Amino acid sequence: MEASYRSAFLKRKSMLEDQLNEITEQPSVGILELKKALSSLIKLGKGPLAHQQLLKSYGSRLQKSIEVFLPSCPLYPKTFPATLSRLMFSIISVTTKESGSIFGDNPVYTNRLVQWAEWEIEYLVRLVKNNAPSSETVFALGAASNCVQASLTYCSMLESQGLKLSKLLLVLLRPYIEEVLELNFRRARREALDVAEMDESSLLSPRSMSPLSAFATSSDSVLVDSGMKFMGIVEDILSQLTPMAVLHYGANVLTRISQLFDKYMDMLFKSLPGPLR
């Protein structure tokens, strides 16, 4: 008799667990209903399953929000990473709060939450890279820079909830940032070469060759104009950088600007006629 009761009890318990699990997986389930279902699963001794479903549910909500937003990324090539970051980190923040209120500070669940958040950040970096403009454009540099600014700001806010994700974010972003910087400075070198070549043509044109005083005046004008064009090329890059991007990648940028300047000066010097060298 006891075995029969036990078998019936376990069968009913299993059915109830399945019903509660189904509730948590419904796309339209509300927050309160979700929390009630998760609490019931915990009472049935299914804490790990309940926590898994919590992460799954909020991950699904995040995915839906991202899918709605992605088609508009081309309309905001420089600023879309900030919106993606807001969507991502707001869900991570809410999930962290709910996990703490339902499951407490159990290290098992906390570690799973951190791992889930790290996966989501990896996903964020892929999304930004896959939806950004061509890496050699200033729009791509602006997008990458805005991603650094927004994401690190949100990471800082999450630290008050016990999540320290800034280091991981910087590690994940570094290859993409370096790729964008490299291709932007390659483009800048091509533009600087074009400027130097145009200046060479101007300096060697018949109008510039005589008389000597007119030649000097004309040459000065050409060189000043050349310098302004070069500064414009550099400004196009610097104007895309946010404070956080400067803080973490500024040394890299300064090194590249120095190399670009040396290359430009070398090309400009070679373009000068003998009397001006």
Automatic annotation (TrEMBL):
InterPro entries found in the cross-reference section: Cullin_repeat-like_dom_sf, Exo84, Exo84_C, Exo84_C_2
Domain Exocyst component Exo84 C-terminal: 13-165
Pfam family, one: Exo84_C
GO cellular component terms attached to this protein's record: exocyst
Keywords: Exocytosis, Transport
Signal peptide region: none
An individual GO BP term: Golgi to plasma membrane transport
Keyword Coiled coil appears in the UniProt entry: no
Protein family according to the UniProt entry: Belongs to the EXO84 family.
Protein name as annotated: EXOCYST COMPLEX COMPONENT 8
Gene source species: Salix koriyanagi
